[in-house]
Amino acid sequence: MPIRIPDDLPASSILKSENIFTMSETRASHQNIRPLRVLILNLMPKKIETETQLMRLLSNTPLQVDIELLRVDARASRNTPQKHLDKFYGDFERIKEQKWDGFIITGAPLGTIPFENVYYWEKFTEIVEWSRHNVTSTLFLCWAAQAALKIFYDLDKVTRDEKLSGIYPHKTHHHQHPLVRGFDDEFWAPLSRYAEFDSDKIKEKTDLTVFADEEEAGVYLAASPDCRQVYITGHPEYDATTLHNEYLRDLEEDLEPELPINYYPQDDENLPPRAIWRSHGNLLYSNWLNYCVYQVTPYDLTDLT
User: Fold this and answer.
1) In the annotation, is 235 catalytic?
2) Strand partners, 181
3) Per-residue pLDDT tens for 104-155?
4) How far apart are CA 53 and CA 224, in angstroms?
5) 237 is catalytic
6) Alpha helices, DSSP H only, in 59-161?
């Protein structure tokens, strides 16, 4: 089944060119099937790129998904046209009285900034607290995962001296759980963060189940007992060249970045990188959408508590 997105959203034509089944709002309005309602709070600078990456993964299931895009505020963006934001992105005040099947909160390039110095921290906290009772399952990505751990468990922000950047091999735990159903014992996933996610600390200080981790990078995938909160500390949605573009950006900003590990063939940045995480990313989002959202969400969302 397709995802349902606005007819003229840029992602629509991109996904169609990749033979990914999307459904226009016009066509979907004539069907009597209730789609899953998934909200995306996009905190990334290049919003068109990120929304397309996420929709690509959400489209790879038998479920019809109705996507709505959310912004944290109406500030202008240096990397996304204002016309696009005004047309496709809503404000929290407009949707906060509604219930949602799923919610995705993206990462943000705020790895070295204390939470209290993030200008939208108060609004972000309000949205995360709201999600407790108004969303069946929320997916927190990268920075959002670290921020949610602070809000839900009062885990202080821990920042690494060096950025984790590259493709890391993670070990899968609790194979019997639906969230990691079909996962290999070890899988590759992109990381791009300063945040520290210590496995032992998270197991000790929270009630989360750790489903995947890596010795150096720590926790990659974890979830609350009821899977209403799912944490991904990496970026399975990334395109093959996303880490490359981030590396070039960091070079231009004189941050002296290390070469992303396990990314370029022969560690040669002049060779095109290969994506070796797509199958994992698709399976992870498919499992989340099916087992954490579709299988447990009420047909009448007003019954959600």
Assistant:
1) yes
2) none
3) 999 998 888 999 999 999 999 999 999 999 999 999 999 999 999 999 999 9
4) 25
5) yes
6) 82-88, 92-95, 121-134, 143-153
Cα–Cα distance between 6 and 25 in angstroms, integer? Answer: 6
* 194 falls within a domain: yes
In a domain? residue 305: no
Q: Exactly one of 235, 246, 280, 292 is catalytic; which is it?
A: 235
Residue 171 lies in a domain: yes
Chain-centre distance of CA 226, in angstroms?
19
Q: Which of 51, 68, 142, 214 is catalytic?
A: 142
Closest C-alpha to 129, from 90, 157, 103, 94: 103
Domain extent, residue 194, equals 3-297
CATH code of 223's domain: 3.40.50.880
Q: How far is CA 231 from CA 109, 210, 219, in A?
A: 17, 9, 9
Domain membership of residue 42 (yes or no) is: yes
Residue whose token pair is 């996904």: 15
**Cα atoms in the 13 Å half-sphere on the side-chain side of 261:** 12
* Number of domains making up the chain: 1
CA distance 48 to 69: 11
Burial 218-238 (b: 16+ CB within 10 A, else e): bbbbbbbeebbbbbbbbbbbb
pTM: 0.88
Q: Which of 237, 246, 280, 292 is catalytic?
A: 237
Answer whether 283's CB lies under 8 Å from 182's CB: yes
